[in-house]
Structure prediction request, 131 residues.
Amino acid sequence: MRPTDAPDRSVRLLRVGEQVRHVLSELLQRGEVHDDTLARHLVSVTEVRMSPDLRHATVFVKPLLGEDEEAVLKALRTNTAFFQREVAARVRTKYAAKLKFLPDESFEEGDRIDAILRSPEVARDLDEAAD
Prediction:
């Protein structure tokens, strides 16, 4: 294996993941999925992580304002076969990726970290460190 193979592979994973994310976002935005729950909610596809062999894609999603997250996830999972077919038709890879939909919890994690940084204890420690 050449030394440049590993970075090329990770770039390829990122590129394919981004293509899958765009396809899924477009399908949801245009309302091409015939599902009442998905029609009532705006859903952001925040990230797609591809497995090294490109056979599996973990899709992180977030409904607008986090409303009805469980119902939206259930609707996405119910329509997984449709999404997989569409992704396979629009993203040219050797295998059709199996999609797995998960909630994107990075926003909550960011809020949690922000709250910790603003807490009086951390502010006091930062003031002491500045002295």
